SnoaL-like domain-containing protein (Actinoallomurus iriomotensis), 131 residues
Amino acid sequence: MTSTVALSDEIKTVFDQVYAAWAAGDADAFAAVYTDDVTVAMPGVFNKGRTAVREHMAAGFAGPLKGSRGVDQPLDIRVWGDTAIVVSRAGIVLAGETEVSDDREVRATWVLIRADGQWKVAAYTNTPANR
């Protein structure tokens, strides 16, 4: 049996992969961490499927997200078998900034599944953080 600590480390690795891809501006590597049928819902955005996520991020990396980095601090990780829910404090640090501005801080909810021994993002949503 895998310990909860080990599972948390495995899940945090998903975040490392997402944000390494973001820092590189690599939409393919970013989308590779998501399931084929992922859903992503954010204010003004709904993407269904890995291809839609890749296209959305490619456009962002070529435009308003160029030179930015995403940050994410898991606040709560709950695992039930091959499913995990992670609630995090997150945001985007734009090029030239050193931290997430208050108006871009969000609370995110990630649903991850483990298939073939690998964790993938099956659903993601965020909402502006309460101030």
Observations:
- The chain has three helices and six strands.
- The chain has one domain: 4-128.
- The helical segments are 4-24, 27-31, 50-62.
- The first helix runs from residue 4 to 24.
